[in-house]
Amino acid sequence: MITMYDTLKAKKIAEERALDPTDQEMIVKAIDDGIETAWDRLASQQPQCGFGQLGVCCNRCTMGPCRIEPFGKKPDRGVCGATADLIVARNMLDDLATGAAAHSDHGREILEVLLETAEGKSQGYEITDEEKLHLIAKEYGITTEGRSKNEIAEGVARGMLEEYGTLKNRIQLLERAPEKTKKIWKDAGIWPRGVDREIVEAMHRIHMGVGADYLNILLHAMRTSLSDGWGGSMMATECSDILFGTPTPVESWANLAVLSKDMVNVVLHGHNPVLSEMIVKAAEDPELKKLAEKNGAKGINLVGMCCTGNELLMRHGIPIAGNMLDQELAIATGSVEVMVIDYQCIFPSITHTAGCYHTKVISTSNKSKVQGAEYHEFQPRTGLETAKKIIRIAIENFPNRDQARVRIPAKPMKLMAGFSEEAIRKALGGTYKPLIDAIVAGKIKGAVGIVGCNNPKIKHDYGHITLARELIKRNILVVETGCAAIASGKAGLLLPEAADQAGDGLKAVCNSLGIPPVLHMGSCVDCSRILVLAANIAKELGVGIEDLPLGGAAPEWYSQKAVSIGTYFVSSGVYTVLGVPPKIFGSQNVIDLLTVKLKDVVNATFAVEPDPVKAADLLEAEIDRKRAALGI
Amino acid sequence: MKTVFVRPELCIGCRHCEIACAIEHSESKTLFDAILEEPVSKPRIFVEPVIDYLSFPNKCRHCDPAPCMQVCPTEALFRDKETGIVAINYLRCIACGMCAIACPFGIIRFEKVKQTGNDREVNAKCDNCISRQKEGNIPACAEACKTGALEFGDVNDLIRVSRKDFSMRIIKSQGTDVEVPKIPDNIRAFRAIMKAIAETGEKVV
Questions:
Q1: Pick from A185, A164, A150: which is nearest to A105 by CA?
Q2: Does domain A256-405 have CATH number 3.40.50.2030?
Q3: CATH code 1.20.1270.30 region(s) in chain A
Q4: Which of A227, A223, A221 is nearest to A94 (CA)?
Q5: pLDDT for the residue B201
């Protein structure tokens, strides 16, 4: 931990750590306050173990732990006999299955809330997007005629929940993919048979003495990733839309300046919107508003963080305080009464950070209890009540705020979000034809999905923003989710005016439609929206997704969920550039497979390039390759 | 002269050597007990990170003449005649810090050690595993190192390998008959990426 009062030195450190000036300001405050952050912990972890970084450490069984000597000497096998290739592949499948499980289990909870709502057992929830409900019911072959929305919703929820452990060996939403892409999956043997099944089978396959062929293990990794992207994640997206509304373009604000000096600040952090949606409702309660005033506050200020924040921003325009590396900085403003956490990407040390201020951390899921947090379990049946209770705790904590220790950056950045696949289609006039025409005419060269996390190994937001700016300059449309989208919000790239930074072709298209050159498509499960977008364009053209001039990038990724997202992008035919190396460099064979040979299977590969300008070169070259193949 | 020779290009920063060192200098000499001992045994070798995430295992070089020995006023530091190791008598150390001032490598740390039987912090530098060596074993750090970054042996033999490899490369350019393994392509690629990340982080936009 760095403890110092040399402001100039602290400023220099802040400039090295983060791109955004408001983040830099709060990093200086965190240093002044003696708050330990992820950057300090990364420094104290140096040097990090090379066996682990290369993926050649295996700690699965008690004959080990084993590691392979990476320079070609002994030991070249684990005690069980596993080679570097096998250990790397098993580790990657393990990481990927963890990520797929995180997404799909999030999806399961959304479906459970949908089911309980349909059965009239939930509190505060309702079917909001009936149009989408009907469309999905049709996909699932559920009768809609003469049935109430709750009856249809029950059918949809049960139909999807059944696919987690289905015996029918297929997931309905995969049928949305173009025929050509589906054939590739079937031919390669990576067609997923169920949501949970692939994850369970992954766990089986990495046990000692099961899979010993790295190629076969990685094919299963691809299958597992498809069960996430086209399964659990897509179900999470679609049913969140049914419950809470499909996003439409909305204006709001981003960065830590959205915290308020004189209102009760509640930060909603995590990934699952089910409880936060109720908190949004609860914050409108006149009695609670009155209580806030009674406690000396000018009102209740809800702000988002990470993907829970993205979900609320997309649907309600709730301002977003920041992405993953902002969670400690938000608390360091000294202005947060309550940070509500659901799950995923919440630093286990968050209560330790909160302990330095008056901030209370409230955990709400029995899957993610945190020591030092107050626990108020979320249940659909009591959702609204729990939400009100949490708001009350925040209000009653407001008088404990030490205004002398509060510092909030001055200016939030304006942004436009809410670009669901449906909203993009609508902005285009109901059909993708205008977009396809612009691509064929070369006004827009192609599109890249920039997704994924923050990682203190990469200067905060630098990877995301530099890449996005480079791409739009080259007339490549950018669609984003997750931490990447929040980064663009902070940097002002989610504004129609940002089209001025784009090349002439893209600028003209954006200006005529009144849209930003970087489109915020949602949370990380909403990477499924990108898949649907790509599938719909491919189907309109009569080609596969792998034929489209598309790319993917995760410039600052850290999480196992990103391993799954990257892999379902590539498996779906989208070339994907990673800014941080995955733990595969201990095996030349695995590198060759993922960066070269996969092209022959799915017409897409991974690449690793930390320099975002060079990453843009790679993506542009791939887009050119696919344009040439399409003859445009 | 026998020494722990460092090949920094083979160090991958796993810190096995640090753990093995701490265990060797503990009371119990077993991992699971060592972590519970009071005072807890600390490593005497330091795997130092470098900016592009390369690392260097830094430890006592057992110099001869040894600057630390020369300035030690109590003769707590002494040379073991049989092995040439710069050894230490903890009970004689007065923690004046002169040895640390004189050490060209900055590897001297003052820690509580079991031998003093009290709370004093004394020079707890690397003793080249003198007791292991007297039993015919190599130092714990070199034994723990799986990549060959730390090798124990006669210094001239170890240098000879590097010298011969260099000569071979001069004559046969990309020759294959080298004794120190060439860095494999995958590791080279990984290090290039880590270097790029380190450099990307330094850029101020």
A1: A164
A2: yes
A3: 84-244
A4: A221
A5: 60
Q: What's the rounded Cα separation, in Å, for the pair B93 and B97?
A: 9
Q: Which chain B residues are closer than 8 Å to A459 by Cβ?
A: 200-201, 203
Per-residue confidence (pLDDT) for residue B202, from 0 to 100: 53
Contact of B192 with chain A, judged by CB distance below 8 Å, is answered with no
Confirm or reject contact between B189 and chain A (CB < 8 A). Answer: yes
Tokens of A557: 């990724």
CA distance A261 to A408: 7
Report yes or no: A492 at the B interface, CB cutoff 8 Å: no
Using the predicted structure, report yes or no on whether residue A399 has a pLDDT greater than 50.
yes
- In A605-624, the residues whose Cβ lies within 8 Å of chain B are 608-612
- Partner-chain residue, chosen from B13, B47, B196, that has the shortest CB–CB distance to A611: B196
Does residue A339 contact residue A269 with C-beta atoms inside 8 Å?
Answer: yes
- pLDDT-based confidence at residue A414 (cuts at 50, 70, 90): very high
Where do the domains of chain B lie? Answer: 2-157
Which among A47, A69, A587 is the nearest to B47, CB-wise? A47
The length of chain A is 632
H helix or E strand, kind and range, residue B154 = strand B150-154
How far CA A300 is from CA of A265, A361, A364, in Å, comes to: 6, 17, 20
Secondary structure (3-state) at A398:
helix
Whether residue A50 and residue B193 make contact (CB cut-off 8 A), yes or no, is no
DSSP A513-547: HT--SEEE--SSTTHHHHHHHHHHHHHHHTS-GGG
Calpha distance A380→A123 (Å, rounded) = 6
Answer whether A265's CB lies under 8 Å from A607's CB.
Answer: no
**A19 burial via Cβ count (<10 Å: 0-12, 13-18, 19+):** buried
Please answer yes or no on whether A50 and B184 come within 8 Å at the CB atom: no
Supply the CATH classification number for the domain B2-157: 3.30.70.20
Whole-angstrom distance, CA of residue A521 vs CA of residue A311: 10
Q: Which ranges in chain A are annotated with CATH 3.40.50.2030?
A: 256-405, 419-630
Give the mean pLDDT of A363-372: 96
pTM for this model (two decimals): 0.92
Coil, helix or strand for A158? helix
Q: How many other CB atoms are there within 10 angstroms of residue B136's CB atom?
A: 6
- The DSSP code for B148 is S
Give A84-244's CATH code, choosing from 1.10.3720.10, 1.10.132.30, 2.40.30.20, 1.20.1270.30: 1.20.1270.30
| Interchain CB contact of A459 with B (< 8 Å) | yes
- The SS3 assignment for B4 reads strand
Rounded Cα gap, residues B38 and B83, in angstroms: 30
Tens of pLDDT, residue by residue over A460-500, are 999 999 999 999 999 999 999 999 999 999 999 999 999 99
Q: Considering the domain A419-630, what is its CATH architecture?
A: 3-Layer(aba) Sandwich (3.40)
What is the reported pLDDT for B205? 38
